Every structure is written in C-alpha cells, then in structure tokens.
Structure to design on (306 residues):
C-alpha cells in the first residue's frame, strides 16, 4: 500500500490489545520471528524517487508510520532520529504516527519539536477504557499540532467524552479485531464513540467490523476484510468533522497551495469502503478485481444484513 511506511518490522506485545496481533499472525505464515526488530528495505521510503526524479510519495499524501511495529519502541531508539530527519525534510507530506507506548513519546521527540511539526499527527492506541485512561491524558499533555485516537483492536467499551472537551483531538478511528482469536466488536461501542465525536465535530472513521461483530444481540462472523469494510460503510457512522488544517511546505520552506497537493482518486469499489475518509485513494495496484471477487464469493452472508 502506498500510504504505509514501515521503517522497521517486529514488535513486543505490550498490552491486551496485542494478544492476537495481526502482525504476529501474518508473520507466522512466513516463518518470521515477530519479536525480532529489524530495519526494512523501505527505511527511507519517503525519500525514494521515480525514474523522472520526482518523489514516489507525493506532496500532500498521508503516510501511516510503523503499522507492523511501534514508532516509540525501545529497540528502535537508535534509528528514530533518522526517521525524524526524513519527516522534517519531507515537510510536504503528512505523517500519521501511532503508539501504545504513550509514556515514551515526550522523551523521544526531536530536539526542534517545540509545539510540534506541522506535518505530523500523534496518535495513541486505546483498545479499551483502561488503556484510554492511561494513554489519552499523556497525549493531551504533549505539545503537538495534531492529535488523534485509534481504538483498534476495539475490544471493550470506551468513553472518550471527557477527553474531547480539551479540543485537541482531531481524528478518531476504530475497528474490530481480525485473524487468530479475534474478540467481538459490539455495535453499541462504536455508536457511543460516534456520538461523542459528532457532538464535538471530530472526524470519526469506523474502518472495519473485524471477524466477529455483535449487533442487536446477534453475532456475525465476517472473515472477508473487504466485506468488513463494506459493512462498516453501511453503518453510516463514519463522518467528516472539522477538517484538519495541515500546513505543508516545499524544500525551500514555501507554503504549498492546496491546488498543488496530491488529490486522491478512487475506483468504483472504493465507493463503499469505510476507510475512504483516511485513505490516499487508489494506488493502481491492480488488486481491485480480486477483492470484488472475494466479496461476491463470500458464502452465507448478505452485505445488507447488519
């Protein structure tokens, strides 16, 4: 995917949200030790260029960082300064940084961070109320231009209303758990998050139901991730709140006009994908047809049944 940058791979399980980690599950099929933290071949991905000399990652794109690890992982301390250098250099690109290790953020920000980089949104993972109450106050105490919350895997009811009153959170994303041992996601949990975000006009993105979804007392088993995303879309709970005001600059530190920034394009099957709100759009990878076939071949489940 062209919106993900994994400069290193591997992680250590940190809290109950990690119990059935998708990265561990997928690594098991490749005989990869998920606890071994290593640099990847994409360590400098935002600096990579195409044959015509232009950057592969275009100005205005949003890049999610460390989706197969944790940005503030202890084992990555020796590499992180290099990553900050890249983020600082590509101040025309938006970087989505997510962590469960909220207590490590403050001491591992770059020396010139001050009140934050214009092109970085800091996010904490909150899988249940316990972790929300631990991590969100830490996030709110840290200076940053942009902040968000990720409730995934969403494994317990969460009340974030008290934290939204601080007017610092700009984006809330939630989704169910997948793969081995997936725990159920309840519709009521999502609806409560939606209502809190709607009240504060904060963008809310319900990206997928997970393998096991509970609504009106009925449990649904949904193995297909494209179908999970479609079900989330059909819930009509995601919405665009107050837009995030990104200030992006070219290499000469000149502001980049909105019309010169990357404009995502979508294909027909993207119309019912719940991730559209937070997606860079189609990367023209050619996998669309395969996903459509996967949805149509799903047995015993109607897309409008939830």
């Amino acid at each position: 995917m062209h919106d993900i940058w994994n400069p290193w791979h591997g992680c250590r399980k940190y809290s109950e949200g990690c119990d059935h980690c998708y990265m561990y599950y997928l690594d098991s099929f490749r005989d990869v030790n998920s606890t071994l933290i290593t640099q990847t071949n994409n360590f400098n991905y935002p600096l990579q260029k195409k044959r015509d000399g232009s950057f592969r990652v275009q100005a205005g794109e949003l890049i999610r960082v460390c989706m197969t690890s944790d940005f503030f992982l202890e084992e990555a301390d020796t590499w992180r300064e290099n990553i900050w250098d890249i983020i600082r250099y590509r101040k025309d690109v938006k970087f989505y940084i997510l962590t469960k290790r909220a207590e490590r953020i403050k001491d591992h920000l770059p020396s010139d961070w001050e009140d934050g980089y214009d092109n970085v949104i800091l996010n904490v993972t909150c899988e249940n109320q316990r972790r929300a109450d631990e991590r969100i106050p830490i996030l709110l105490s840290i200076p940053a231009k942009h902040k968000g919350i990720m409730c995934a895997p969403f494994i317990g009811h969460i009340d974030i209303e008290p934290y939204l009153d601080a007017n610092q959170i700009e984006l809330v994303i939630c989704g169910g758990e997948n793969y081995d041992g997936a725990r159920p996601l309840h519709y009521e949990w999502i609806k409560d998050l939606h209502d809190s975000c709607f009240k504060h006009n904060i963008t809310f993105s319900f990206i997928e139901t997970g393998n096991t979804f509970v609504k009106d007392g009925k449990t649904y088993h949904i193995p297909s991730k494209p179908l999970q995303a479609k079900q989330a879309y059909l819930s009509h709970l995601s919405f665009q709140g107050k837009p995030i005001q990104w200030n992006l600059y070219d290499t000469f530190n000149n502001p980049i006009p909105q019309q010169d920034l990357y404009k995502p394009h979508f294909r027909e099957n993207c119309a019912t994908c719940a991730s559209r709100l937070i997606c860079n759009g189609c990367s023209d990878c050619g996998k669309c047809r395969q996903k459509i076939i996967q949805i149509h071949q799903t047995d015993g489940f109607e897309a409008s049944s939830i």
In short: The first helix runs from residue 22 to 28.
